[in-house]
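anyone seen this seq b4? input:
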Amino acid sequence: MTEAKRITWIDAMKAFSMLAVVLYHTNIMPEVKTMAYILCLPAFFFCGGFFADATMSADTYFRKKTLRLLIPYLIFSLLAWVAWLFVGRNYGADADAQTAWYEPLWGTFVGTSYSLFHNAPLWFLTCFMVLEWLWFAITRSRLAWWGQVIVMVVLAGAGITLGRFHILLPWGLTAAMTMLPIYWLGKTLFPVLKDRSSGLPVWKILLLLFAGVVGTGVAFYYNPDIKISTAQVGNPFLFYVGELGVIALWFALAALCDRLHLSKATSLIGTQTLWLLGLHLPFFGAVKGAALLLHVPLSFFDTTAGCLTLWLATFLILLPCIYGIKFLYKRCTYRFISRSSSRLSSRSRMD
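predicted toks r here
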């Protein structure tokens, strides 16, 4: 989406999910950690389906859909590997681990959550790339719509089965198959949500909010032991009920933010989720390194106060830095293009 065409409630759903992602990756108390994990991923897969487009050629689809994730994935993984090589493997939890220098590079090639131990959240990018290609292949097939649905259900069942036996296929394929129905649902419902989300009556927002709280609560109470990155879903029915509950919850809160004119605040986070995903764990390491220089023990970050410090610092320090980096990049690019254009104009005049 371009800045002029952004749909604010989508950014709000992504923002709420990112708040949960960052909290999950702290050492917060187990109950909060479990709830954060339940809340953090469904909306990303669901909203991803909004912009699925099977009318593109395979070449265009690769350039527009795959490269926009593959390039950041490689850059974030390389930066995290450098940080791990010089800092992570010498200090902190990995200081005593017998890990070869090249293992994170191999992990980047494999692309699963276990192999990406130097920056585990990057598994989502590989998983999402594979998921988009699965959907593209199924949609471009000659199957009727009901045949496509059957294929997606079968693939989801295969992903769940592989997850039960702890079989992780490269590039997050196991998780991608499991989440394919959520992505398809986003694609299917987007025309309805786009047309009816603006000016949604308060009673409908409250009804969705209630349904979301119930669905999320059921998942937390009856089916908490899930891990989407490895397709560990527990009870499949309760798992998908929980996924739908989280989606309803975030959509209702996003619609409420629109009514209260808070969309600009949520868009500050929702528009930078890719950067936050790739940088928040290295940022945690930088904060802990600064704490050591200030003689603050690392055990502080195992407390609730320490976890909340990391969580808040991510959005109060890292987020503005991301905006600053992007601003400088655009300014430098603009100056480079302007100078190049001036030189070309001068040469053309001389000719």
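The chain has a mean pLDDT of 89. The radius of gyration is 22 Å. kinda curious what u guys think
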